[in-house]
Amino acid sequence: MPSSEKRLIKVMKALADGTRVQLFKEIASRKHMTCTEVGELSHLAQPTVSHHLKQLVDAGLLNAEKDGRFVILSVNKEMAEELSRFVKVLINPAQ
Fold first, then answer.
1. Tell me: the pLDDT tens digits for 27-46?
2. What fold, for 3-90?
């Protein structure tokens, strides 16, 4: 299996959790958020939020940039586009 497929499988596994999908959608809708803001919006315990965000960052779906005491999260558009292309090929392999 090519490494690109392995990477995309990791992405799909990260999105196989409803909480992570919701967090991803919220960050995408706002362009960027701090970890603190995500925690406040989600009403989840801080360790739970950290766990879910780590899964999304490790899968490459989110970028995490340190800004002083804060971590700024944003969608990795390149990975999102790669995932979109992969799903399209899965659905319609002839194209």
1. 999 999 999 999 998 888 99
2. Arc Repressor Mutant, subunit A (1.10.10)
